[in-house]
Amino acid sequence: MKRLYTFVISLLCGILAVNAQATFTAGKLLYSVNDDGVSVTVTGHVDGDEATGSIDIPDFVSHNGNDYPVTRIGYRAFANTHSLHGTLTIGNNVTEIGYAAFVKCDSLSGNLIIPNSVEIISAHAFNGCHGFTGSLTIPPSVTKIYGCAFMFCIGFDGTLTIPNSVDFIGSHAFEFCSNFTKAVSLAEEPPALGYDTNNTTIFQFDGFGCSTLIVPCGSKTKYENSPWHDSSGGFSTFIEDCENVLEVDDEPIPVVIDIFSLDGRFVKSQKNNLNTIDISSLNAGFYVIKVKMSDGKEFSEKIVVK
Fold first, then answer.
1. CATH number of 26-241
2. pTM of this structure
3. Model confidence at 123, in pLDDT bands (50, 70, 90)?
4. Is 261 within 8 Å of 236 (Cβ atoms)?
């Protein structure tokens, strides 16, 4: 019995040790290792609600000799942190901005740049962040913008651009963003708009700064016959842009592909035959590829070589 008891205690201690290693601090930010064991989520600030200054979420973070790509901003990571009076920088490996990650971070200022790596903008992600100014461009990696994601972001005073990759926008997503002066949707088919909890109202753009939406050439009728043209919060006027639509031949193309190990060491670069990536010389393991486009933009992706 004593031997069994000792074994159980040892097992529990082992579990506690593993859990302890799964969370750590680097600089002023808190992190947890994701289930894949090779990437991390930023979970908050060491000073909690009293955090001040700017937030700089890096591409990679080092811990115990390992470099981890930062791929997520966690659930309510910086929620209600009113003393953050600086800017927000989001690393180029972040794919998900979690639920209420920056809700009511109303003192963050400057432009909000969402990198091309982001795929998911969760509900309430930036709700109440009214300190951001200028334009807001949703990157073409995003497919869904969930409910209340930018609600009450009244500081934006430029153009809202929604890419053609977005196929769903949740209820109240841009409600009361009252100072936008221009709105553009690049999708030829109107993205689906999620309904409110009573399943009858939408309000994605109720209280939005402008009532006119610029849409691709030939799409005006589609938007007019969709919930985007709705008295409960849609746009009242649609203008087709038939001059600035990118032709296929004009779209940005990859010009350089760089490959790095997870600890940030440069492995190789490829500038020719960019339709495929030659990984025959790589050892098995995890790598990060960084692609530079002809328009100057960059994005990164993690790959596994087996």
1. 3.80.10.10
2. 0.75
3. very high
4. no
Residue type, 202: I
User: Is residue 293 a contact partner of residue 259, using CB atoms and an 8 Å limit?
Assistant: no
Query: What is the DSSP track for 161-181?
Result: EE-TT--EE-TTTTTT-TT--
Query: Phi-psi category of 285—alpha, beta or left, where left has phi over 0 and alpha has psi -120 to 50?
Result: left
For residues 46 and 56, give the distance between their C-alpha atoms in angstroms, rounded to a whole number: 13
Q: What is the DSSP letter of 185?
A: E
Q: How many CB atoms lie within 10 A of CB 20?
A: 9
Per the structure block, which two tokens stand in for 74?
């966690």
Quick: pLDDT tens for 35-80: 999 999 999 999 998 999 999 999 999 999 999 999 999 999 999 9
Structure tokens at 302: 């993690």
Tokens of 173: 């997503």
Strand, helix or coil for residue 298: strand
Helix-strand-coil split of the chain, %, nearest 5:
10, 30, 60
Q: What are the angstrom distances between the C-alpha of 240 and each of 34, 164, 220, 250?
A: 44, 15, 6, 20
Contacts of 249 (CB under 8 A, 6+ apart): none
